[in-house]
C-alpha cells in the first residue's frame, strides 16, 4: 500500500508490453515498488510468441526480457497471461495477481491499439475489434480492478486515456471514440469509488512518440513515454483525490478547454 | 461504521470498520467474527504510522476497555486504560508508572504492543519488562492468560497487536515521594560533547534525554540540551496536568519549515541554561508536547514522518554519519531526541537494544525524503541496529529480517496462535510481517 511518503509496493500492469505502462512500472520500481505483475498477451510458455506484433500493435519486445530488466532494478517480477478480448478470463488475471503479490497498490490499465482510420474505413470488422480492445476490454478490467481495490480499501487504477478522446477528430474517429468512451467510463468509475479509499487516475497524453506511433509525424505538444510516466508517477505519489486527471504535457488541459469550444465547421477541418 | 484512520503522523489514511468493545465478552465475539481482511486493535492512535490501521478490515477501538485496579504497587488494567488516567490517580497516592513514553496519552495495551520506552530505559528497560501477566484474546476469540515465560507473551510484547488483543495486563509501579522532578539541565557545544556527557553521566540519573540541534552546521552540529533527573524526595504530590493550548483544526502546510524550525531550535538552545538544577512537574519533564493538544496538526494536511532508529554501542560512527547527512542536507527536523538505551525487555519484536537511539520528526512533503531515509535504513541495519515500528510509516519489507533477528521465531509463534493470519494491520502488510 502507499506509504506515508507516497511510495507504493505492488504494481499490476495490464498490457505488459505497453511502452508507457512499462515506463511507469520502471519508475515505480526505482522509487521502491518491490513486486510487479506483468499481464501479457501470449505470456512465455503459454502461447505462440509475438502473435500480435503486427504494425500498429503495441506488442514488441519480449516480456521475458522486460521482466529481466525489472528484476535487475531489484523487483520481484511475475508474468501472467492476459487476453484483453477474453473478458471471461479477466477475473483469473486479478486472482492470480493477488495470489502472487497480495494487495494491489497500483493497477495500470495500459493496453491498446492505434490503427489507422483508413484501414478501419476499409475493414469495419477490424474497427470493431480495435474498439473492443481500446474501450470494451478496459470496462471489464476496470470493473474487476474496482472490485479488488474497493475491498482492499486502497489502491489506484491508472487509466491511459488520450487527448484523442477529449474531442474526437475526423482524422482518427474510431480510435478517438473508443478513448472518449474509456475516458467517460474512467470518470464515472472514479466517482463510483469515492469514499472507498480506492482511486482512479486518468492520464491523457497527447501524441506520444514511441513504437505505437512509429512512422507518424509528431503533433504539436507531443511527449515521450518517459514524460508520460514521470507525470503519472508524480500524480500517483502526491494525489489524494478520489478521481484525478493528468494531461501530458500539462498545457494540453487548457488547450483542449479551448479546442472543445471550437465550432464544428472549423473542427472538421483539423488536418489530423 | 467505516472510518478513515491514520496514525499520529496523519499520513496515508485507509478505511476500516471501527468497533468499540466494552468488555471481554464483546471483544472476544468481535475477534471471533473477524472479516477476511483481518482485525487489529487500536488505542489512542499515538503510533505515528500505520500500526493501528487495517485497510478494508476491522479495527477494534479498545478505549472502551477501561477498568483497572491497584493493589500493593501493582496495577491490573484493561488494555484500553490510558497512562494519563493511571498517573492522574496514582501520583497523588505516591506511585508512578514504571515507564512513561513522551506522551501520557497511550493505552496500556498500546504500551505493551509497542513495548514503549522512556527516559529511564538505560536503567529500567521498556514497558514490557515490568509486565507480570497478560490476558490476550487470540484468533477465534480464545482468551489466554500469559506469564513472561510464555513464548506468546514474548511475541506480544512489541508484537504491534499482531498476536491478539491485550484485554488486560498486570504490571509493577514505582513508588515516588512527590509529583516534582529534580532536573539537571546542561547545554553541550557539539555532538561529541553531547554523547560524551551522556555516556559518562547517565548512570547517575534515573531519567535522561538530550535534545540535539540538527539544523546547526559546522562546529555546532549536534549541540544539545541534556535534561537528566529523578523524582524529587520532597514537594507536593498534586498531579492535574492540563492542556495549555490547542493546535488549530486545519493548520496549513509548510508552517514547520527550515526557517521556523531553525529559529525555534536556536531559541530552544538559547533559553536553556548552560548548567542548572531546576524543579519541574511530571508533565513538563516527561510530556512537554502533551501541553499542546493536537500538535501533530501543525504539520499541515500532508502530515509528518517520525524516524527513530537505534544503533548498538560501538556503532557511533553510523550515528555521526546520519546526523552529518541530515545537517548537510538541511533536513527540517523538529526537536530531535537522542537517548542511550540499556538492555531490552525480551520482546521478540521489541525495538530497544543497548545503544544510541535518535528520533526525529520530519514533514512528509520534503523532497527526496524517501530515498534519504531508505539510505539510513541500510546504514542502521548494517550497523546491527533497527527502526522503531511504532513510529514507522514508510520502511520497506526487505529491511525487517536484518533489523529484527528474532522475526522468524516471532512468526512461528504468531502462526501458531493465528494460523489464518487474521490479525493484520497496514503495517503488517507493508512490512510483510
UniProtKB/TrEMBL annotation, chain A:
Annotated stretches, region: Disordered: 47-66
Pfam families: adh_short (PF00106)
Alphabetized GO MF terms: oxidoreductase activity
Biased composition (Gly residues): 47-59
Domain of life: Bacteria
Keywords recorded for this protein, A-Z: Oxidoreductase
Tagged with keyword Nucleotide-binding: no
Keyword Oxidoreductase: yes
Family: Belongs to the short-chain dehydrogenases/reductases (SDR) family.
UniProt protein name: Short-chain dehydrogenase
Upper classification of the organism: Bacteria, Bacillati, Actinomycetota, Actinomycetes, Streptosporangiales
Automatic annotation (TrEMBL), chain B:
Gene Ontology CC: membrane
InterPro entries assigned: ALO_C (IPR007173), FAD-bd_PCMH (IPR016166), FAD-bd_PCMH-like_sf (IPR036318), FAD-bd_PCMH_sub2 (IPR016169), FAD_lactone_oxidase-like (IPR010031), Oxid_FAD_bind_N (IPR006094)
Keyword entries, A-Z: Oxidoreductase
Domain of life: Bacteria
Residue ranges annotated for the FAD-binding PCMH-type domain, each copy included: 11-176
Record's keyword annotation contains Oxidoreductase: yes
Annotated GO MF terms: D-arabinono-1,4-lactone oxidase activity; FAD binding; L-gulono-1,4-lactone dehydrogenase activity
Protein name: Oxidoreductase
Species for this entry: Nonomuraea glycinis
